[in-house]
Amino acid sequence: MTTPENEGRKDTPDTMVGTVPGDGPVLPDAKRNPSIATRERRDTAYTPSGETPYLVVQDLTVQFPTADGLVSAVNGLSYAVPLGRTLAIVGESGSGKSVSSMAVMGLHDRKRTKISGSIQLGGDEIVGMPENELMKVRGDAVAMVFQDPQSSLHPLYTVGNQISEAYRVHHKVSKDVAKKRALEMLDLVGIPNPIRRFKQYPHEFSGGMRQRAMIAMGLVNDPKLVIADEPTTALDVTVQAQILDLLNNLQKEFGSAIVLITHDLGVVAEMADDVLVMYAGRCVEYGTAEDVLARPRMPYTWGLLESIPTVSAASEKLRPIKGLPPSLLSLPGGCSFNPRCPYTDRVKGERCTTDLPELLPVDGAGAHTSRCHLHDKASIYEAEVAPRLG
Ligand SMILES: Nc1ncnc2c1ncn2[C@@H]1O[C@H](COP(=O)(O)OP(=O)(O)OP(=O)(O)O)[C@@H](O)[C@H]1O
Ligand code: SF4
Ligand SMILES: [Mg+2]
Q: Which ranges in 20-96 belong to alpha helices (H)?
């Protein structure tokens, strides 16, 4: 598709290589989303671990028509998450993390958003699903935990009331049964004295308690997928650790798939099974957490890793990525990262500024993929980047 942003650029859809053992490749249901059938596709449902996915996002593009032009907030994004596994989506502000996840929840205003590609949840296609069906999916199969629980909890209803109503929306039960369930959830997320807390309003809870209450509300219907968008950013470090532990434990209890959106690579290392790095609306690196964190193969990921404090690297050694992410209305030609990339002179000719790199397996095969023209990514990383990371 030609837009004001990509005009004149060689643009290729993400190429996700890999299959799901046992079931074979899970292809999108072309009947539900005919636009998929007409495109030549090489991508298949794919998880770095090879497990059968519950959530399958394929070639997702989300665009907002604005007075200044078409904003392509997400471009050709593909990933998949099995039950019981956590995918972390990382990237700087504005890279499309929230917009892509809101598409999974079907939360975009249909009139103001152009969405293409496929999002399958347990085999059901979300893209184009009627609103009444989507409402059933939200809160039932999928729950979202936001950064700011204040914006999701209604200030005029008690916390207990909101959790029990969230349960009653999806279950035909009496108020008493729903209350019992809400009390169980408050207890499960570690809120002391649930009976007293049930009757309180959100402003009577501390920030950490509100976040727990929101998690209780999100999980009250045993969702198979939890999307946690910066769930701990507003909290102090101790409470952050408690909330992350809680998510981890709940995942063990419910066996849910988790998509965790975060800026914090420390949180990624702690929580994620798989990692997807986004830059300017595209996936630039994807693989298991071990591959992406210990053997990253993309200069942007190197930049992210070099710009965070670690136990071994003193803060004076930190090297922030120079410059700012590009405007989505006027992306640079070729690789979107090229104006900020210190390695462009290692690529022959002008490819970094003329050709958009495809997302390809880093070793010519396998589940770890990255989007970069460099030929010798592994040796550059080992010789130059890894020593700086300490
Ligand atoms: N409704 C909208 N209309 C136009 N542009 C939008 C709209 N919603 C989001 N965007 C743009 O889409 C881009 C991606 O936004 P998104 O919220 O996904 O970023 P993010 O990666 O979640 O960033 P952060 O880490 O700051 O939360 C941003 O440039 C944002 O300005
Ligand atoms: S393709 Fe070029 S600009 Fe992009 S990350 Fe690789 S070396 Fe840097
Ligand atoms: Mg966001």
A: 34-38
> Does 40 fall in a domain?
yes
Residue nearest atom 12 in ligand 1 by C-alpha distance: 73
Q: How far is the CA of 290 from the centre of ligand 3 (A)?
A: 24
Distance separating alpha carbons of residues 182 and 57, to the nearest angstrom = 32
Give the mean model confidence (pLDDT) for residues 268-290: 96
Atom 2, ligand 2: residue with shortest CA distance: 352
Query: Minimum-distance ligand to the CA of 64?
Result: 1
Among 99, 230, 336, which residue has the most ligand 1 atoms within 8 Å of its CB, making it the best to mutate? Answer: 99
Most confident of 9-13, 161-165, 318-322: 161-165
| Enclosing domain of residue 75 | 34-141+223-389
pLDDT attached to residue 316: 58
Mean pLDDT of the chain: 84
Question: Model confidence over 86-133: pLDDT tens digits?
Answer: 999 999 999 999 999 999 999 899 999 999 999 999 999 999 999 999
pTM to 2 decimals?
0.85
Ligand 1 probe mutation, 74, 98, 101, 151, most atoms within 8 A of CB: 98
CA distance 167 to 181: 8
Task: State phi, psi for 133 to the nearest 5 degrees.
Answer: -75, -40
Distance 68 CA to ligand 2 centre (A): 28
Short-list 19, 23, 61, CA closest to 44? 19
Residues 6+ apart with CB under 8 A from 342: 299
Question: What is the total count of domains within the chain?
Answer: 1
195 versus 310: the higher-pLDDT residue is 195
Judge whether 109 lies within some domain: yes
CA distances from 57 to 35, 63, 76, 101, 344 (A): 15, 16, 10, 10, 31
pLDDT in tens, 7-33: 333 333 333 333 222 223 333 333 333
CATH of the domain at 91: 3.40.50.300
Q: Give the start-end residues of each E strand in 130-262.
A: 142-145, 225-229, 257-261
Q: Does residue 5 lie in a domain region?
A: no
> Which atom of ligand 2 lies at the shortest distance from residue 342's CA?
8
Ligand nearest to the CA of 353: 2
